[in-house]
Amino acid sequence: MAEDLxxxxxxxxxxxxxxxxxxxxxxxxxxxxxxxxPGDKLPSQPDLASRYGVARETVKRAxxxxxxxRLIVTRQGSGAFVRAQTQRAVELRPHIEASFERTxxxxxFAGFSGETLRDAxxxxxxxxxxxxxxxxxxxxxxxISDMTAPMAxxxxxxxxxxxxxxxxxxxxxxxxxxxxxxxxxxxxxxLGLVRSATVEVRMHRASPLFKxxxxxxxxxxxxxxxxxxxxxxxxxEPMAIYDLMGKDVPLFHYAVTDDDASHGTQFVEASRQWFxxxxxTIAYRYDG
Length: 288
Hints:
This protein has 288 residues and is α+β, with helices and mostly antiparallel strands. The protein has helices at residues 19-32, 45-52, 56-68, 92-99, 115-129, 164-190, 263-280, and strands at residues 72-75, 79-82, 89-90, 104-111, 137-145, 155-156, 196-204, 210-215, 219-224, 227-234, 237-244, 251-255, 284-285. The strands form three sheets. The protein has an eight-stranded mixed beta sheet with strand order 3-12-9-8-4-5-7-13, with helices on both faces. A three-stranded antiparallel beta sheet has the order 6-11-10. A two-stranded antiparallel ribbon has the order 1-2. The longest helix has 27 residues, at 164-190.
């Protein structure tokens, strides 16, 4: 074999995922945890096939998954390389799972309700429960808007203004998501599966216009909430509202590199500073 590939681990025979998906997950984790840096060449297809005991076609399918996710580029006659570009639309869930490969996991979220965070965490936490992931600590901070206070958004479309009934609906969504994150993470601590499992939730009175995820203080995922007019049921009656649509919005990925002046490094640092400034000034404790 051309190089030591122990850092890529082995396939799990008990994992229901296909071998190609497992290989893609191993390579993705190596890229996201910076074991493979932007510009690095991936191990060759023959080396990967030998490492995992699979056919080269299986490896090709795994690499195609990463190429579709824009994590790698392939160059004819040269092989596959980690993309140097750090900002791109991505799907959050595999990155959340990769962050749990670390001994100490930290996740900061700022946005509307945290529904996407709750759902993205679920699969990673399930793998902690069954022993496939084994971090020693998990620390989550959630920064959300206080929907008991008047807001510019969401709003009643007819009047284009704040409406207590609209906010009451939004508050239920927010609390359901926040409580879900708290319960999911706390359960791991209660079961003794991690040494430390904490979730802190704070609120503020600004309208949510974007969502922000900071993983292990090294990666940022950022996306805008589009404002759409739609009809919802409020107290049993249809009402047109201007709503914030967070599910399935494009998230753009920025990562710390060895270059302090790189765009990714600077964006991550600015995001951390913004989050901490909000957290330590105008944010206040959420009483679930």
